[in-house]
Amino acid sequence: MTAGLSSTTIAKLLNHENVSMDVLIKVCSTLGVDFGDIMELVPDMQDNTEHDNL
Questions:
Q1: What tens digit of pLDDT does each residue of 2-54 get?
Q2: Which residues contact 13 (CB under 8 A, 6 or more apart)?
Q3: Are 23 and 16 in contact (CB under 8 A)?
Q4: Rounded CA separation 17/19 (Å)
Q5: Using an 8 Å Cβ cutoff, are 8 and 2 in contact?
Q6: Residue 48: what pLDDT?
Q7: Residues near 37 by Cβ (< 8 Å), separated by ≥ 6?
Q8: Which of 45, 43, 44, 27 minimizes the C-alpha distance to 35?
Q9: How far is Cα of residue 42 from the mean position of the Cα atoms in its chain?
């Protein structure tokens, strides 16, 4: 089973860096899971003022 991800992309995932939605879709499709099964939304407590205006 392979998602066809580059070593650079895997390094980003391991280092909790941003990856594209395409990467997340590949991971979910390969594992047969949904987004909520592989990630969670953690609010950024440093910059709440920008989000308060949404």
A1: 678 999 999 999 998 999 999 999 999 999 999 999 888 888 877 655 555 55
A2: 5, 19, 23, 27
A3: no
A4: 7
A5: no
A6: 57
A7: 28, 31
A8: 27
A9: 12
For the question of whether the overall pTM of this predicted structure is more than 0.90, the answer is: no
Residue where the block lists tokens 């953690």: 42
| DSSP string for residues in 1-54 | ------HHHHHHHHTT----HHHHHHHHHHHT--HHHH------GGGHHHHHT-
Domain spans of the chain, in order of start:
1-39
Compute the chain's Rg from CA coordinates: 14
